[in-house]
Amino acid sequence: MNNLGGPEFVFLVLLALLVFGPRRLPRISRQLGAFVGELRRAWRQAQEAIEREAEFDELRRTTREVEALRGEARRLARTWADRALEAEGPAPAGPPAQKGGETEGKGGPAA
């Protein structure tokens, strides 16, 4: 409707005047204006609803990504903890062995 110029508008007004008559034209114009206003409001509300839904979808997608990253971080932490425990090995059962294979004793080496 943005392409409606002066001559086109005058033609439409004259046509409406001929079709509806001078008595009904003001009432019909008000009704048409009210209808156009309601149509614009409905269009704006629909656009806002679509934008809100798009933002909500984005938020849901981001939440799923964060949950996936959180799960991955937990798995990595468990893996690292398991590897750290494996690297320590089992706890020794007795006293540590001495270097060089010598044993404790008073007599020294047997000859």
Helix content range of the residues, please? over 70%
* Percent of residues in β-strands: under 5%
- Tertiary shape: rod-shaped
Class from helix and strand fractions: mainly alpha
Which radius of gyration do the C-alpha atoms yield?
43 Å
Low-confidence stretches: none
Note down, in words, how this protein is organized.
The chain has one helix at 6-88. The protein is mostly helical and 111 residues long. It has a domain at 48-86. The longest helix has 83 residues, at 6-88. The chain is rod-shaped, with a radius of gyration of 43 Å.
Keywords summarizing the entry:
111 residues, mainly alpha
Give a short summary of the structure.
This protein is mostly helical. It has one helix at 6-88.
What are the SSEs and their pairings?
Blueprint: H1 6-88
